[in-house]
Structures are given as structure tokens and as C-alpha cells.
């Protein structure tokens, strides 16, 4: 029970990687605080992991996010920010309003969480962000996600210095078999799973439990800060 007596906050914890991390943290003895946009889905997730506390709000709303942190009953030990999906579009078709919202989700929301964490996370505790590895490829339609993929490791490393002794790390998954992936791929999901099983060095698809295991390790290991950790089953190698 390596997280026994600690409090883990999962922003975006009603499904996928966030929920699996909450589940694993709870198994390790932590009290879990879950947030999500959908109250019904959040309620179901909270019942599943026996969450100590929940809050339904949109994490990209600065006022709601600030109010959530101010309303926490006391210091917490770890905060995981599970971001939404990326926005893909060729430059000629780029919706700049959607692009600005994507930057808001993936850059400004983590910045605000980091500022709020300085007063909410105990010294030596951790702040974890979720990014991805898909934007490291070069192809039409990836300009925006490539910029976000490059920005977040730099942001993480700098925040690890600026808000120390709170530790800051970034997890960068490749394809993860989650409800979000199912929504993004639709009917192409099974074919993508088949392709990955045949081509990845690990010969299986990465699941949310793989990412959650890394997240909990980063919470537990107090020597780790300022780094980006890939968990993609070797997807970048093939």
C-alpha cells in the first residue's frame, strides 16, 4: 500500500487513463479525488473507485478550475491532469477557433494547474501531465499537435525547477486503447488494433493500465522530476 494515507487528485478521471490511474492509486491505499465534465459518468467512476470526493466541471474553464483547487479541504499529495484528445487538421482546413481551444486544453490548462498546485500540493508531492508521441511524426495535418508535443516536455522541465519541491513529470503515451481512441477512430478501431498487434515490438496494444502503472510509479518515486516518459510499446521504433 505504497500510497497509503496520501491523496491523489485526478483531473479528467471519469474514464480511460484517468480512471485507471485512480483505480490503481486506490488499490495502493490512496484517497482519490475525481473530476470530470459529465456528472453522470463521474458519479459512476466515483462509485467504482470509492472516491473520497468529486467535482464536475470543465477543467479548461479557469474560474471553475481555480474554484476547485480553492475548495480542496487541505493539501494533497499528487495531481494528474489527463488531457483531452488532440485536434488534427491539414493547414488549409484548420479551424482556428478549435485550434485555440486545443492550445488552451494542452498548454494553458497545465500552466494554470501548475500555479494552483504550488499552494495545494505538499512539498515532495507530484504533478503529472499526459501528452503523447503522435506529434513527433511529420505529416500534413500534424502541425498543431507537433507544436504541442514539443512544447510540453520543455514546460514540464521548467516547471520542475520553478515550483520545486513539488515534482513535475510528463507521460507521453502512443496509441492507448481507451474510449477516447474508440471515439476518434470509429469503425477503424479494430483495424488499428490489429495493425499494432502485428507491428509493435511488444506484440500487443497498450492499454490504460500500462499508463496508470507508470503514473503511480512517478507518484511513489520521489527522485523523479522534470522528465518525459514514453509509454508506447515501441511504436516510435517501427
Q: What do these coordinates show?
A:
This protein has 238 residues and is α/β, with parallel strands linked by helices. It is 46% helix and 18% strand. The chain has a seven-stranded parallel sheet, sandwiched between helices. The mean pLDDT is 92.
Structural features:
238 residues; 7-stranded parallel sheet; 8 helices; 7 strands; alpha/beta; globular; single chain
Secondary-structure element series: EHEHEHEHEHEHHHE
Mean of pLDDT: 92
Spatial ordering of strands, largest sheet: 3-2-1-4-5-6-7
Distance between the termini: 37 Å
Q: Label the structural class.
A: alpha/beta
Instruction: Give the proportion of residues in helices.
Output: 40-55%
**How is the biggest beta sheet arranged?**
7 strands, parallel
Oligomerization state of this entry? single chain
Query: Strand-residue fraction?
Result: 15-25%
Number of strands: 7
Number of helices: 8
Put the structure in a nutshell.
By secondary structure, the protein is an alpha/beta fold. It contains 8 helices and 7 strands; from the N terminus they run βαβαβαβαβαβαααβ.
List the helices and strands and how they pair.
Layout: E1 7-11, H1 16-27, E2 31-36, H2 39-49, E3 53-56, H3 62-71, E4 76-81, H4 96-120, E5 121-130, H5 143-162, E6 167-173, H6 179-185, H7 189-199, H8 208-220, E7 228-231
Parallel strand pairs: 1-2, 1-4, 2-3, 4-5, 5-6, 6-7
Amino acid at each position: 500500500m505504497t500510497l497509503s494515507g496520501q491523496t491523489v487528485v485526478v483531473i479528467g478521471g471519469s474514464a480511460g487513463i484517468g480512471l485507471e490511474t485512480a483505480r490503481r492509486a486506490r488499490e495502493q491505499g490512496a484517497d482519490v479525488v475525481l473530476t470530470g465534465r459529465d456528472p453522470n459518468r463521474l458519479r459512476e467512476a466515483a462509485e467504482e473507485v470509492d472516491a473520497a470526493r468529486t467535482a464536475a466541471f470543465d477543467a479548461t474553464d479557469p474560474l471553475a478550475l481555480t474554484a476547485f483547487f480553492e475548495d480542496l479541504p487541505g493539501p494533497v499529495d499528487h495531481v494528474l491532469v489527463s488531457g483531452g484528445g488532440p485536434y488534427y487538421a491539414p493547414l488549409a482546413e484548420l479551424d482556428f477557433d478549435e485550434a485555440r481551444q486545443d492550445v488552451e486544453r494542452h498548454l494553458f490548462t497545465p500552466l494554470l494547474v501548475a500555479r494552483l498546485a504550488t499552494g495545494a500540493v505538499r512539498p515532495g508531492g507530484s504533478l503529472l501531465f499526459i501528452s503523447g508521441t503522435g506529434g513527433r511524426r511529420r505529416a500534413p495535418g500534424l502541425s498543431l499537435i507537433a507544436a504541442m508535443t514539443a512544447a510540453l516536455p520543455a514546460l514540464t522541465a521548467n516547471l520542475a525547477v520553478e515550483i520545486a519541491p513539488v515534482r513535475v513529470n510528463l507521460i507521453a503515451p502512443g496509441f492507448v486503447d481507451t474510449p477516447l481512441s474508440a471515439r476518434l477512430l470509429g469503425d477503424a478501431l479494430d483495424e488499428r488494433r490489429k495493425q499494432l498487434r502485428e507491428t509493435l515490438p511488444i506484440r500487443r496494444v497498450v492499454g490504460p493500465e500500462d499508463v496508470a502503472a507508470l503514473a503511480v510509479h512517478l507518484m511513489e518515486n520521489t527522485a523523479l522530476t522534470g522528465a518525459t516518459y514514453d509509454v508506447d510499446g515501441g511504436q516510435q521504433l517501427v
